[in-house]
Each structure stands twice: as structure tokens, then as C-alpha cells.
Amino acid sequence: MKKVRSGKARPAPAKKSTARGATRVGVGKKAKRVVLPTGYRPTENETFMSSRMRKYFRQKLLKWRGELVRESEETLQSLQEGGIVEPDIADRASVETDRSLELRTRDRARKLIVKIDEALERIEKGTYGYCEETGEPIAISRLEARPIATLSIEAQERHERMERTHRDD
Fold first, then answer.
1. What residue ranges define each of the domains in the chain, with the CATH number in brackets?
2. Of 2, 25, 137, 152, whose CB is crowded by the most CB atoms within 10 A?
3. What's the pLDDT score for residue 27?
4. Nearest alpha carbon to residue 128 among 48, 44, 40
């Protein structure tokens, strides 16, 4: 137990380790390692956001984030390596268009990385997988398709209907 300024004791945070892909879940000496079986996929039948399920989504998010960062670094390196040396104005315009498209794609990836980081924070806080609007669990199938989802399908649809209604004004 840790003491806080109020003098009350509270549990120490859960210990974590990335060694061999295992995560320690729990408090104190009785914390246990969570190891995902090969080919594990969460199902609607298991306890929602169990330690195994949290680990699965954490790994999925970290892998996705790593891919986006790597792609961004490759784009940056590509842009730094060479200027436009095309003598033909049409070729130069084509190269500029390609670069502009790549930069827009990287900007979207940057925003996505922020959302992934927010999802990872929600996993740490224990709020991941629950709708921000209703507090109800988000369907596993939705989280599989969009692991950064913060709203259930129903809440997202309501949100989109409201946007359309107000946009038409």
C-alpha cells in the first residue's frame, strides 16, 4: 500500500513488464502474468475487458502505432533525400502532387497516432472498451474493426444523425 497526502493508504499501481510479451496484472506480490495463447481472439462469451482481452487490444494498438510511425519515418526520409529534379514541368507537377498526397496521408496518420495513444491510456485506466456516452460495453466486433472506438455503434449512429441534422441548418 502507498500512503497519499491525506494519510490514507491506497493500492500501489499494477506492475507491468514487456519481457517476452507478458504483462503483469494485479497488485503487489500476487500479480500474475498474462500470456496470450497463439491465435487468441476475444469473443463475446468471455468476461468483457478481462486482463487477457486488455492485453490483446493493447498489443493490437501498439502494433498499429508502430506501423504508422515506421511509415511516417520512411516518408520523412524520402522527402529529405531528394528534391524535385524533373526537367519537364508536367513531371514536376506530378511529383508535387504525389508529395502533397503523401503529406496529407502522414497528417492523418499523425492524428491517428494521437487517438491510439488515447486508447492505450484508456486501457491503463480501465475505461477502454466502454462507450464514453452510455458507459455500456462496445461490441468486440467493433473494437476489432476500429480499436480506437470510443462510442458504441448505437451512440456513434446517434452522433452522426445529430451532425447531419445540424449540418443541414
1. 11-40 (no CATH), 49-167 (1.20.120.910)
2. 152
3. 38
4. 48
